[in-house]
Amino acid sequence: MRYYLVAGEASGDLHGANLMKALKERDQQAEFRFFGGDLMQAEGGTIVKHFADMAFMGFFEVAANLNTILKNLKFCKEDIAAWQPDVLVLIDFPGFNLKIAEFAKKKGLLVCYYISPKVWAWNQRRVLKIKRVVDHMFCILPFEVDFYKKWGMQVDYVGNPLLDAVAAFKPDEAFLADNQLPGKKIIALLPGSRRQEISRLLPEMIRASEKFPDYQIVIAGAPSFKRAYYELFFKGKNIPVLFNATYDLLSHADAAVVASGTAVLETALFNVPEVLVYKGHPVSIGIARALIKIKFIGLVNLIMDGAVIKELIQHDCTPENIAAELDNILNNKTYRQNMLANYDKLDEKMGKPGASAKTAGLIIKYTSKK
Fold first, then answer.
1. I need a surface site. Which of 43, 195, 235, 240 has the fewest CB within 10 A?
2. CA–CA gap between residue 193 and residue 300 (Å, rounded)
């Protein structure tokens, strides 16, 4: 069968790649065409556009780049219509993907959506549009099933694909030696995969981490950037930037400072005590605070329904506040143990791996019934 996938950011690329791998195991004739990234490209098929050209975060940033976004939408619609896939698989990235779903539905294509938009956080009436334009929704957070049920929509809960990625990870035994890090205690900095995130967060992360001279700072670089970009934020300092090695880095980290997003949950799954940071354009933050009706923004806290990790957002995201939280994580034994104990409870809630395989099986089943 012919599968057209659309992923618009780094996390979607990861989940898309694992889904493609699972689809290939069940469909020997699988053909792929996609918007995605390096991980999906490694699974084969044809990449149409890289997510690095698509990822704009925040209301202001989206408005400022509206022309580029509209061009990408037009291009994606034309490419889907020309290729005529058996099924369209949309991965998260709702601002873009719900528009693509609407187009595809009108064209009579089967529309599957993997990883639900966070409609439970704000503007819940978007569910009405999802019911109209999406044939099958695959959810990765347990509470989403009941949420959709309240709106009269049946969805499939498949588990969380991050568990698949973590379970499939094979540590590089030479990681520390190859990166000249043997015996060093590490503070991992995960500043995100978007230019806006990195430019706003990385300087604050570095200034905070430098208050702990006994630790080695290591930055997890996004594959869509070069080291030279990161060096703009720490000129003249010897700070390693490691690409395509985030899981190896987390395997050895004592603590982490992490941009809000999927990486927050990944860090917890690797049992690394962390602090969440987030900064956006003031206009975007103002709109978000007016619209969003949830107590937390981090997946760890949302799943646990409690403040397991500290969230430092906008004006609270300062080097001083980040350093204070790192001090708690690294030097307050009780504080650190409480966080790790909550991670154990998180593991229980998350369940077992298998989301990619389950989703692949359901997509094939639904496509076959088309």
1. 235
2. 19
Instruction: Quote the pTM value.
Output: 0.76
Tell whether 29 is covered by a domain.
yes
Tens-digit pLDDT profile for residues 2-24? 999 999 988 899 899 999 999 99
Distance from C-alpha of 199 to C-alpha of 206, rounded to nearest angstrom: 12
In a domain, 169, yes or no: no
**CA–CA separation, 179 vs 175, rounded Å?**
6
- Chain segment 90-132, per-residue pLDDT in tens: 999 998 999 999 999 999 999 999 999 988 877 788 999 999 9
* 129 occurs within a structural domain: yes
Helical H segments across 236-332, by residue range: 246-252, 262-269, 282-291, 299-304, 319-331
Q: Is 235 helix (H, G, I), strand (E, B) or coil?
A: coil
**335 lies in the same domain as 358:** no
Please report whether residue 110 resides in a domain: yes
For the chain, the domain total comes to: 2
**Strand order through the sheet with 156-157:** 46-50, 31-36, 2-7, 87-91, 110-114, 136-139, 156-157
Phi, psi of 270 (to 5 degrees): -90, 10
* DSSP state at residue 315: G
The CATH number assigned to the domain holding 301 equals 3.40.50.2000
Which conformational region is residue 93 in: left (phi greater than 0), alpha (psi within -120 to 50 degrees), or beta?
Answer: left
207 with 104, same domain: the answer is no
Q: Which residues contact 43 (CB under 8 A, 6 or more apart)?
A: 17, 20, 21, 24, 32
Residue type, 214: D
Range of the domain at 23: 2-159+354-368
Q: Which residues of 157-171 are buried (b: 16+ CB within 10 A; e: fewer)?
A: bbbbbbbbbbeeeee
Q: What is the CA radius of gyration of the chain?
A: 20
Q: What is the DSSP letter of 316?
A: G
- For residues 44 and 272, give the distance between their C-alpha atoms in angstroms, rounded to a whole number: 33
Interaxial angle between packed helices 161-168 and 355-368, expressed in degrees from 0 to 180 and rounded to the nearest 10:
120
Residue 155 and residue 181 in one domain: no
